[in-house]
Amino acid sequence: MIRARVLIRPKAGILDPQGEAVQRALPALGFAGVANVHIGRLVELDVEDAAQLESMCEKLLANPLVEDYEIQVGE
């Protein structure tokens, strides 16, 4: 089995209300100098065939209309 990670984020220009809320909250908590906050998700999975990952992302794990994804394959 191969351990894979898929990082999914909103595409550039797509509204990210969670990211905006975090960006507004951080200065209120005393953290200065924060910009361009985006909230995504991480999917970790073990697969037998890493060649299937692209298709998994396109069909289920990510919404390719509004999200970008990055596949990282480990050993």
Compact summary:
The chain has 75 residues and is an alpha+beta fold. It has helices spanning 17-28, 53-61; strands spanning 2-10, 41-47, 67-73. Strands 2-1-3 form a 3-stranded antiparallel beta sheet, covered by helices on one side.
Describe this entry's structure for a reader.
The structure is a single chain. This protein is an alpha+beta fold and 75 residues long. The protein has two helices and three strands. It is elongated. The protein has one domain: Mth169, Chain: A. The longest helix has 12 residues. The protein is 28% helix and 31% strand. Strands 2-1-3 form a three-stranded antiparallel β-sheet, with helices on one face.
Topology readout:
Elements: E1 2-10, H1 17-28, E2 41-47, H2 53-61, E3 67-73
Antiparallel strand pairs: 1-2, 1-3
CATH architecture: 2-Layer Sandwich
Globally, the shape reads elongated
The total strand number stands at 3
CATH top level assignment: Alpha Beta
How many helices? Answer: 2
- How would a textbook summarize the main sheet? 3 strands, antiparallel
Q: SS-based structural class? A: alpha+beta
Order of helices and strands: EHEHE
Measured as a percent range, the helix fraction is 25-40%
Radius of gyration: 15 Å
Task: Predict the CATH topology.
Answer: Mth169, Chain: A
| Superfamily (CATH H level) name | Phosphoribosylformylglycinamidine synthase subunit PurS
Query: In whole angstroms, how far apart are the ends?
Result: 9 Å
Count of domains: 1
Instruction: Give the spatial strand order of the biggest sheet.
Output: 2-1-3
Low-confidence stretches: none
Task: Name the beta content range.
Answer: 25-35%
Q: What is the overall pLDDT average?
A: 94
